[in-house]
Amino acid sequence: MDKEDTSTNQVSQRWFIDLDWHQQSNRSFFALAQGCLCPKCQKRLKGEISAADLLTTIKDCCSKTPNFITGKLPILESTFRLFLANGNQPLDLEELGRQLSEWRGGDTYRTSAEILSRLLASDQYYGLRQIP
Fold first, then answer.
1. Model confidence over 44-71: pLDDT tens digits?
2. Three-point CA angle 64, 118, 56, nearest 5°
3. What single DSSP character describes residue 48?
């Protein structure tokens, strides 16, 4: 496989938040996602809610607040929040980078497919995984 095939393959990889990974790894998706709720939803949503309801709430409300994703956040945190904002719809690296760059105010260096590929492949915190 030559270099062009490898880079094309990396770009076409689709990523998402793997909720099963969180459970299997004894990690709490809810703790991470609840930290992304806006103040209004934090007050409204108390106790355990389903992952689907949490994703819907963040997508429909919290992700619309200013500063949900900024250039000051770490790239993986921004990526996690982007997946929350889009309802955890899988994205390839190119689209992920494009959307992150827009949210982060034109940050094209840290949102390149090459950098995202390396960061996502080594994630052990957010449960960001490639679609098999």
1. 887 778 899 999 999 999 999 989 999 9
2. 25
3. -
